Amino acid sequence: MGRRTTRAVAGLAATALVLSACGRGDEQADGQTGAEVAPGAATGTITVWAMGAEGEKLPALAKQFEAANPGAKVEVTAIPWDSAHSKFTSAIAAGQTPDAAMVGTTWMGEFADMGALDPTPPSIDKSVFFEGAQSTTEVDGTSFGIPWYVETRLLYYRTDLATKAGYETPPTDWQGLKEMAKAMQTKAGAKWGIGLQAGGTGSWQSLLPFAWSNGVELTKDGGAAYNFDSPQMLETLEYYGSFFSEGIADKAAPVQPTTEPDFASGRVPMFISGPWMMSAVEKVGGPGFADKYDVMPMPTKVTSSSFVGGSNFVVFKNTDNRDTAWKFVQWLADPAVQVTWYQQSTDLPSVASAWEDPALRADTKLATFGEQLKTAQAPPTFATWEQVITALDMEVEKVARSGADPAAALKAAQASADSIGTGR
């Protein structure tokens, strides 16, 4: 994920850090069952793990929490993404987890099913978060932690080439998108009309925004099973596959696409990605390139929806300082802190009201991401999601690269999902 701006911000008042003063019941005194957190300022030391660039930047933010809570100390350990999952599972098995941590949204079901996560206290208002982001914290109806930061996916498109293709405004529906992509080839000279992932790891993140926009439900039987072979998903995969079969998207595209140079040169004038790609394409495109492209919401079939990603922040059950761990997590959800974190990291706020800040509203492209987040959705928090989705990625690849029958592909993906199960 691209990182653009680092900016120092003054510490916040201690009153923003204190949870509402609802005392714990005696039967919940062990702090393991979603009990309320004691009132007052945070005290004592907590250990925190965070991954990647977030792990490197979080210590500076945590100092503001310490400044507002002089009796508290936050010890942050930065962990590489590629080793994070195994480090967490080993720590859970050994009972040596940190007090709190940044956790990938697709890991929530697995870690909750291992009994490692502490349920969110009642005083944390779940309604302040984008609905799709909040859903990533919920496993079997129980919320664990908060959505810390979010991202969603939009269609990037070259406005200058769109004008050549006859489009002053972008299309809003499925048919319009395909027509514009084709016109980018026939009228604007693009090699490919749109860049879509032709299978491989993570291709589900390109397919599912179309699926959710077509009303696809990824679970059935009251949320108890996977649901990959519905009529709506079939219609979606047929549409997605048609871009490749009709020569609008490259069926031989590499798994690691050269998105930025292809977009800057006009070879591939449209693609789907998250907000971090703005700085990436502008760097490659050079001065003035920001004026040659824009972003648009996912086109509508039944609605307009997209994938909501990001990371959550959780408290582990075996914490030795539960109160301070939760006070730190709640502090991270304060709208002003969320804006501060955006300014330091470019991670987008999960709290909807934070988007009213001028720091975010001033960028019209960024504001479009904020609008899409209102309807963005997340995959189910089943413990087996990362196993199951591998099969769907493989089937998408067969359709995109080899023209396989979408119905057969989804039947195979469903059979694999049924065989693996949900982990519940």
TrEMBL record:
**One Pfam family hit:** SBP_bac_1
Keywords on record: Signal, Transport
- Has UniProt tagged this entry with the keyword Iron? no
SUPFAM superfamilies tied to this protein: Periplasmic binding protein-like II (SSF53850)
Give the UniProt family note: Belongs to the bacterial solute-binding protein 1 family.
What is the protein's given name?
Sugar ABC transporter substrate-binding protein
